[in-house]
Fold:
Amino acid sequence: MEEKTAIIADPKTGQVAEIKREPIRNSIAEWAVTILLLLFGTTTLVQAFVIPTGSMEDTLLVGDHLLVDKLAYAPAGSISKYILPYETPKHGDIIVFRYPGDIQQTFVKRVIGAPGDHLKMINRVIYRNGVQLNEPYVYHKLPYEETRDNFPIASPPFVDGLPGQLQHEMYERDVVNGEVVVPPNSYFAMGDNRDNSLDSRYWGFVPRENIIGKPLLIYWSYRASTEDLAGGSIGSLVTHAIDLGEHFFTRTRWNRTLRVIRGFPDADLPTHELPLNPGSPNP
Structure:
């Protein structure tokens, strides 16, 4: 491709100069590199994710738009493990993962059990390896229910399909002396909104390879319905677009913008028993 030139006259001296322009293909190459870097960053380093349900309320709300660090739990290579801060999921971490019951779906929960842990829940209280967990991030918004607020139980409410199969396997293989024992390369994950969370109680464990990363921050939060955020129909998309156009400023939760998301390590758990936290009915 030939270079293009431009004839420019100096307005003061009247002298004419010929200036060579960059070849068009150079500009195309620059844009191509930029696009590739953006694609690399959004597929390899960071991924955008929106919270469509209330299972993590009030820590994460429906309509929170997150940036997820995909390198945090990436498998370390022979050289990269000395350069990049790879880590193992820890108790209290919030993780984003492919739902074992349908890997096309992406879930976000909190790590409650790591490989080898013994877990049980009695009257809404989690015991891990015989120690009661006093969890300040947990919310209970519904009245006590025996089959939901105790785990494992003699007659669990098994769900349908693949999640139910995974739940059956967990009860048959991993329940020992009234406790669930987390198998190798697996994690037990639960939502902070314990009364309304489809979590490991109902579909078993999160395989290590299903974990995508951990949330970094909330870059935008917008008050919307689960149907608008999770619906795949043209109608729901149009409805959501109209809603955004009409209520962007009034329904954006400005106080949550750029909020950093952190886990809650065991060292920060209080030693004394906590009262039930009802949370906000409409966060």
